[in-house]
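Friendly challenge for the regulars: who can give me the structure tokens for this chain first? No prize, just bragging rights.
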Amino acid sequence: MEIELYEYKKINLSNALLITGFPTVGLIGTIATRFIVYSLNIDMIGAFLSDYFPPISTISHRIPLPPVRLYGEEKKCGPNGKNESLVILLSEFVPHFTTLRPMANRLIDWCKENNCNSVVCIEGFNLEKKSEETPLLGVGSTENARKLLERYGINIMEEGMVSGFSGILLYEGNRRNFDVTCLLAGTHSEYPDAKAAAKSLEIINKMLPDIEIDPEPLYKEAEQIETQIKAHISKAKPTKSLYTEPMMYG
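First reply, four minutes later:
Bragging rights claimed.
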């Protein structure tokens, strides 16, 4: 299955840190990565394109955009400021499952080609019981990735499942000896959970000591942000006559 990674703009990706966010449980990944992109005003540098994606365009600030986009900027980031660039992979929809593994491997290939050495996935997981606090768990594809999670006090998931794009990145990262770190925030919501996304950003903020990402607006504007994300996703669902495959997964 052909997955094209089209580059709009070239930046130095050597030693970059890449953060991914897809709309899975609680839409935590999408909310968090959108917040990073718009807070830091990062330019779009690329997009994944495929004939197997739904025929949609995401409209943001009056501009039509591809549904799976890459944003990037050259700046010191990552633990100890060791990374030279920050890259964000953002999407408002989950591509059909048959496209996920080719896209994950294309992303890892692109990272290796450009010496971008680590990926952090922001995800959600379903809580069995409601909780006042948002629990965080982590999974790492390599020992190095697991040590990074432990450094920030994140409990490592011993048994369980991570689905979707992040799940594939984890096992392909393990198979290909590539650092993939997955940060999972617990949520009991079937709807967008901006508060859980903000909890994830508290850790991301610690990982990016030279970049200030204040998650407080997410806490304050959670309801408004959740409504905006729901509206994006609702508009992204074409009629059955245009597209009959499921687009969202819980």
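The radius of gyration is 17 Å. The longest helix spans residues 97-113. Your move, everyone else.
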